[in-house]
Amino acid sequence: MIQKQQHSLLNKAEEACDLLRKHIESDHVVRIISHNDADGISAAGVMCNAIARQEGKFHVTIVPRLKDDVLAKILKEKYKLFVFCDMGSASLTPIGRLKGDVIIADHHQTIDSKAEPPENLVHVNPHLYGLDGTSDVSASGLSYLTVRPMDYKELAGLALVGAFGDMQCSNGIEGINKIILEDGTGAGTVEVRDDLKIAYKAQEPLYKALAYTFNPAIKEITGDEEGSRTFLEKLGISYGIKFTELANEEKDLLKEELIRINPNIFGSTYSIPQEIPQLRNIEDYSKLIDACGKNKKHGVGLSICIGDRDGSLKEADLLLKTYRDNIVQGIGWIKKEGSIVLRNIQYIYTADKKRKKVMGTLSSIGLELEILDPEKPVITLSRMDNIVKISGRTTKNLTEKGVNLGSALEDASKSFGGTGGGHNIAAGAVVPYRNMENFLNLVDDVVETQLKAS
Ligand SMILES: [Mn+2]
Question: Which ranges form a coiled coil (predicted)?
Answer without folding.
Answer: none
